[in-house]
Description:
By secondary structure, the chain is mainly alpha-helical.
Amino acid sequence: MRSDLGLGILLGSGARRCLVVAPAVSSQPRIAQIDGLRGLAFLGVAWVHWAPPSWRGPFPWEIGVFLFFVLSGFLVTRNLLAARDRAPSPAGRLAAARAFLGRRQLRLLAPYYAALVAACLLGAGDIRQCPLWYVFHLVNIHIALDGTWPGGIAHFWTLSVQQQFYLAWPWLILFLPRRALGPVLVAATAMAPLWRMAGPFAARWFADPSMLPVGALDYLGCGSLLGLAMHCGREVTSRRMAVAAWLCFAAYGVLYACWRGGHGIPYLASLQQTFLAVAFTVLAAFAHRGIRGPVGHFLSHRFLLRVGTYSYGLYLFHNLAPLLAGKIAPFLWHPALHDPLATILRLPVWAALAWAMAGACHRWIETPLAQRSRPTPETNEPVGRGGPAAP
Length: 391
């Protein structure tokens, strides 16, 4: 059936036909509920980093980072496929790849390096001791080898994964034969759970193998498969897909509860993240179409949309907010302050500082560079696009 995500994509001739006739994506406004998902994802990540463990409960708030990965895979792949349709010749695709990388690096690297400078000024020790890992977007490999999380700046690992993804994906999407795109994306997605199964073997060389880019391929790959399916004009928001998403959420919840309780299921636990990736992919598909009812109204709330619009800057600076607060408001750590009062006083200060830094970044760095880059029409990538995030 046309509503089965990925099945039709794997049919070589069918994929070839749908890609040949698919029209290029025209200029579109930002999709509100996609920004709402970005905002929701960031709030989950911020809660993990700011709230004490006793406040978080059993819910895995960190899954917001994985939603960011899915959205990145989806939007980037759709944009690249549209660019491929506009440039059928090899020379045109090469120019499209260079233009894509140039625009993206211009818009993302300047805020990133501004955040690195701020982290250095605020006393983030690991950047000063190991600067090259951060400058060259290798933080995830640094953590994978070392096995420790640098205080206040560990969140940069996902930005490294994203940069590695951006450098590789244009060549894959623009230059693979059309009929190979679906099978290759499925194979890339399958590499993530296989890598987790090989964890004991990989542990010979890496203290934390999950930090390598292959560990995020099910999220990026599922998002990319959604982009391919939608580019082919396939229906991906059927009732069957909604049921599949709920089943995947349930499977993830069961496996997560087993892992949290110290009773992880061998081999099947390697699919835990993949179940979540599939569920988030379907959620992104429905948000792209527009979800009705209370959920849709929630994802379209003005506050959530504003957070989603600023999500890249918020992610960059949110872990630096406590460091800055320690410089300008040290009384918040007075020995006389104890939880919950201490956290109640700190949280609004951290949120205000993160918002101020993200707003400054958006106004004086992201917006001018986005206007200067003058991107070709791309869904959800006008001035101030939200970016990736992770704990």
